[in-house]
Write the structure tokens for this entry.
Amino acid sequence: MAQLGVNNLTFYYEGSYDNIFENVSFMVDTDWKLGFIGRNGKGKTTFLNLLLGKYEYKGTITSSTVFDYFPYQIKEGYRRLPAAEFVCELKAGCEQWRIICEMEKLKLDAQVLYRPFCTLSFGEQTKLLLAVLFSGENDFLLIDEPANHLDAGARETVKEYLKQKKGFILVSHDRDFLDACIDHVLVFNRKTIEVQAGNFSSWWENKKRMDNHMRMENEKHRKEIVKLKTAARQTRQWADKNERTKIGFDPVKEPERCIATRAYIGAKTKKMQSRARQTERRLEREMEEKEGLLLDIEEPQSLRIMPLEHHKKTLIAASQYGLKYKGAEKEVFHGLSFEVNQGERVFINGPNGCGKSSLIKAILRAAGKDEEEESVSDLEESGILRTASGLVISYVSQDTSSLRGSLKDFCRKQRLQESLFLAILRRLDMDRVQFGKEMQDFSEGQKKKVLIAASLLTPAHLYIWDEPLNYIDVFSRMQIEELLLLYKPAMLVVEHDVRFREMAATKVIDITPL
């Protein structure tokens, strides 16, 4: 059993404002099924790249194992080729028969290996690349968010597959996925690194108990500090008052005193001043300990949303609705009937390719979102789809590629009040130091938070979010859950996070592929 040791690791990007890691040390076994947990921007993907030797760093990383990373980067020239022709470049020495064996475990037909890669669905591509990843021997595998964009069925297949494996680090923000696949956690807390046996839920329960204990200890220290401050102040006042009595006394009023008493008073004052200094030193220690107690406590800030109230109860109504691409013989879906009413959080559920995003774009077009019309101009409709007149929609796309430039420019373009927008990002735990960066330099999770913050700040009758939680850290997901349960905005959501859907949805629309 090999070990991976990290000692005094320090790293920052050239030109960056802050260190990503500073004197980080920990050790893990390479046969663990290790879940990697942390806020967006804490350096999870960066750490995996450090293991792969992509960046220079200070400190040491020691291991006798070979690392391999998912997702593989497919060169543009290879995307039109069958994967069988380039898998050896992805993983040196891999054999196709081993890949096919892994594909069977992932419920993937062997013929997928011989079809042009660009013709495969996202789920098929993910499964195929995972099969390549696990086709070697004795590698320590670095798996970075494999469940993003996967539908429920594909997630379940990948989850069951990883259950049977070991010897990997898994980065994921899906609580259900982590609970099923890991036996240890590596946590990048706010100020410290933690390694613990168990899955996400067991770690989270332990953390909540520890945070509660730390809060109680903090309260105890706070009360002790108040007492110490009072004692130090009184002792200092007594010492100063006693010191002033050394000189200037009236012999008539104080006949028992003489010049010789000055030495006695001075000695007494010295003791009192020493006692005050000791109390102040103890006070400093108590304050330092108090500050240390709160370093890693997760205190998610409450979020706010400003939904508008429409004069109609029903915001969207569909009856026997269907969509088909122009020129295609087969419909994407048909016969879909549903309503979205005020106060409802409606989740659209279905496998990849069943038309969830197409349905959202058709609704945006029906509601007069001009910027979306071009993307659905090749769709033909059947049945009835109605939206309430004057419906104001706040939309979060799953695509973040348009986010470029500064946050100031983004606020100006979106007509957002910059100070409020930045306050929401802070509540989503984005560090202020990030505000000076260009958005294209943000992590994918930070880009998603920009879109969500803009949506929360936009008053609307209906909030339409298309896969909003991809790359969003688990703590922010729980913040958003609490927000939706508190404010009850009308929403139409596509999201594959099972735990989030169970908590937030009031209604689920199932789209069955034809």
The chain has 14 helices and 17 strands.
